[in-house]
Backbone:
């Protein structure tokens, strides 16, 4: 059973860089992709991107110019950086493990979520 | 991007009812479709993956179906703990887009 614990700054000013980290407990780190998803207050889910244990990344094109997802296999952690934030980036950010099989992928374990508010 | 459209956006139902939520993709996505349940202030929970496979530990009253562009999530004999918002997600192509959600409320 995989458990995810995430942390990071919850209040940012416009133009700053959002930085969140997610630690993985249990499971085999190399068996999964590691994903970030966000949810603006009162709205739906938006997929941000994912990374595998080798560091291969896949980003949402709408955020690609500002997003970096990285991984530290020795610590079993992965991180999200989003630069030049604006109020539109205010959301609850979730980390998740993503399983794959026969081409299908699904996010089966999720972190607790971190509310990030961007305000001057 | 592949657009995912859920219907209805909300519904009211009673305990014991059977409810069906529909998800339509803007292009064919084979069976690369997942369903999640989200309760207020909680992370989403995976219910169904690959269109019809029940995630371990999820009650059998949840079932998924469909392929191509049209998919369904059916909840048989609705229980009090099932009142929540449900999202579909396609993973056929990147970005892995979600539907807008369907809120299931108590009648």
Residues:
């Amino acid at each position: 059973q995989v458990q995810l614990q995430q942390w990071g700054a919850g209040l940012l000013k416009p133009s700053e860089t959002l930085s969140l980290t997610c630690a993985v407990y249990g499971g085999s780190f190399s068996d999964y992709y590691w994903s970030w998803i966000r949810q603006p207050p009162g709205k739906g889910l938006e997929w941000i991107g994912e990374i595998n244990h080798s560091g291969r990344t896949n980003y949402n094109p709408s955020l690609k110019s500002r997003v970096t997802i990285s991984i530290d296999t020795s610590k079993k952690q992965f991180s999200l950086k989003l630069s030049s934030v604006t109020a539109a980036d205010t959301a609850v950010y979730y980390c998740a493990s993503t399983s794959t099989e026969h081409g299908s992928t699904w996010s089966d374990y999720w972190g607790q979520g971190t509310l990030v508010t961007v305000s001057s | 991007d592949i657009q995912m459209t859920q219907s209805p956006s909300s519904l009211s139902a009673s305990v014991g009812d059977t409810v069906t939520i529909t998800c339509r993709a803007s292009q064919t996505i084979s069976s690369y479709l997942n369903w999640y349940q989200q309760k207020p202030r909680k992370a989403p929970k995976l219910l169904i993956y690959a269109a019809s496979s029940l995630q371990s530990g999820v009650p059998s009253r949840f079932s998924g179906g469909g392929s191509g562009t049209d998919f369904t999530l059916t909840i048989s004999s609705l229980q009090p703990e099932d009142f929540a918002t449900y999202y579909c997600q396609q993973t056929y192509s990147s970005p892995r887009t979600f539907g807008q959600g369907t809120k299931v409320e108590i009648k």
About this structure: The two ends of chain A are 40 Å apart (CA to CA). Chain A touches chain B through 23 residues (CB under 8 Å).
